[in-house]
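quick one, 191 residues, struct below
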Amino acid sequence: GGGATPCRSRAELAGRAARRAGDPTAIDAFDVALELWNGEPYPDLVDWPPAEGEIARLSELRRTVVEDRLDALLDQGEHLSAVADAELRVAEEPLRERRWALLMTALYRSGRQAEALRAYQHARDLLIAQLGVEPSTGLRGLEAAVLAQDAALDWHGEPRPAERTAPAEAAAPRAALAEATEDMGALRLGP
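---
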């Protein structure tokens, strides 16, 4: 099922640690964590009130990992990949402002300022129509930064080769996946 597993938690933590360190393996670690997520958490318990809190917590954790992965793509200068993924993620959950901010940033860094501003306007219209609220201060500030072509929005990393990860860079996530697979086998074979 989609419940929490120690291997997924380790992969999530590895991704966050790698991202904080500026390590390109962060994307791979988040990919591993998301691959270990099979569908919705505890689908058989969705109608059982005592499970509601845990289901909500795990669902939010997955959403956060998806968004952290997008942040990692932006951190590594993979703006075109981030645009495609952010568009998909915004479509999945259009009321999550962080996803709109990530999409706007990816568009801007891809040289698509006008589209970044259109994305903001779409998010604003949606929030007003569905919730009756204006976007958060953070999203409004991002719109202002895009309008001003604020240098703080620019990517300041090293140019990366066309291939996202070299075999040596992918060693840590592969090790995490191997460990996760081993943990999953132990879970199935345990007493």
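Residues 143 and 155 are 17 Å apart (CA to CA).
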